[in-house]
Amino acid sequence: MEILLEQGNNQNNAAGWRILFLQAGENGKGIRDIPIGESQVQGDKFPRPDIVAGKSAIEYLAIQLQESQDPTSPYHGESGMTLEEWIVAFMAHLEETERPMDDFGAGNSIVYLTGAFLSAALDEEAETDRIPTARWYRFDQQAGLFVDELNVPSENITVRFAMRA
After folding, report:
1. Residue numbers of the domain that contains 142
2. Which of 14, 30, 35, 144 has a CA that sits 20 to 30 A from residue 101's CA?
3. Considering only CA atoms, which of 24, 60, 28, 21 is closest in space to residue 158?
4. What is the tens place of the pLDDT at every residue in 52-83?
5. Which run of H or of E encompasses 96?
6. What domain count does the chain have?
7. What CA–CA distance (Å, rounded) separates 22 from 105?
8. Helix/strand/coil for 4
9. d(CA 117, CA 57)
């Protein structure tokens, strides 16, 4: 209890537990899919529209910064996921639903992991900086963690925001 109180008082996530809140999937199981295409609004008490695919990582970072600081936004206080958070969320989702999260072959978006920074992703020879992405490859039956261009929009990639406590 002392560790959690100190963590709350000092806003220090290094000690104790880090709890990640994500939007629940169907029937409260797993984590909600982010479909490619039209935006849907989820939730009765606190309606949340989907963050649709089609923007660059830079644009999603700007949206995330603006929405997280706006107390009237349904995304207030949220930020992007890290690679480690995505892996844990993927495994929890798989265990609860018996199907993979962010299954690109099933019409779901690939996600930018805007909570991560990898110095290796900044390739001096590349024409642009890069950002980590995560997806499930249905045809190879494996999860993929890759880097994509930071400034190039893609109609297949979106972002998954999360609340931390």
Report:
1. 2-164
2. 14
3. 60
4. 888 888 899 999 999 999 999 988 989 889 99
5. helix 83-97
6. 1
7. 22
8. helix
9. 12
